[in-house]
Specification:
alpha+beta, 2 domains, 22% helix, 30% strand, globular
């Protein structure tokens, strides 16, 4: 199914249970590159996005008895919702297909970032360097990491000898990691402030979001210091292997 066929198929599933409202802006290009593929039958419409080591999965269901049509390998689906509006139908359908819930993250939000928004002392890391650090620090699936080539241009801080001490991926949902020996040194905060500086332009104040696990006390402390507060939006990761 090509991009235009997918858009046409969407019309049949406009009022269904789904998790596909977070589609990327470059959807057409992703289809053209073969990064995204779609499948449909009379009960459901499925969208698959190739990631590094797994496939990101989105769906629209006309009938909850639908069965997943999926490629081989690890598949991840994400449900984002407000705390008092848990998407029970979507979650139950994923569990019935054999998915397991692996992690929940809570969104933290800030408008005015506290600190010096500067790129001083930072440089760009190669895609391989950035992915090696982030992939070693996080589960690629649970952190929703993209394909390796999209890590090009990540910002990093280097310690003596050029070794990476910290890196931040500058995507729609930035992901930050600091090496164990550099934690507590303020590098994580410095990297996030650098990322924020790339988003503040022409006097505009964008809204910043950070998705943090409730048990990640170091990240919770750092983002609170930067001016973030928790809101009522969560995202759950479901994995099928």
């Amino acid at each position: 199914m090509d991009y235009d066929s997918y858009l046409e198929a969407q019309k049949q599933y406009s009022r269904t249970i789904s998790n596909d409202y977070t589609l990327p802006a470059d959807l057409r290009r992703s289809f053209a590159q073969g990064v995204m593929t779609a499948a449909a039958d009379d009960k459901a419409l499925f969208l698959f996005e190739s990631r590094e080591g797994y496939t990101k999965f989105r769906f629209r269901l006309l009938d909850p008895s639908a069965k997943i049509i999926a490629p081989e390998g690890k598949i991840a689906a994400f449900l984002t919702y407000r705390e008092n509006r848990f998407p029970e139908s979507e979650a139950n359908w994923l569990l019935m297909q054999g998915f397991s819930k692996t992690k929940s993250l809570r969104r933290h939000t800030a408008v005015d970032i506290k600190g010096n928004l500067s790129l001083d002392g930072l440089e760009q890391a190669s895609a391989d360097e950035a992915y090696a650090m982030l992939g070693g620090h996080f589960s690629a699936v649970e952190a929703d990491l993209p394909r390796r080539d999209l890590f090009e241009g990540a910002l990093c801080f280097r310690a003596g000898g050029g070794k990476l001490a910290g890196v931040i991926h500058l995507g729609h949902r930035p992901v930050l990691a600091v090496s164990p020996e550099a934690r507590g040194s303020g590098i994580g905060q410095r990297l996030y402030l650098a990322y924020a500086s790339t988003k503040v332009r022409d006097g505009r104040k964008p809204v910043f979001h950070a998705w943090i696990s409730p048990d990640n006390s170091a990240s919770l402390f750092m983002f609170k210091r930067l001016g973030f507060t928790a809101d009522d939006v969560l995202t759950d990761c479901f994995v099928l292997e």
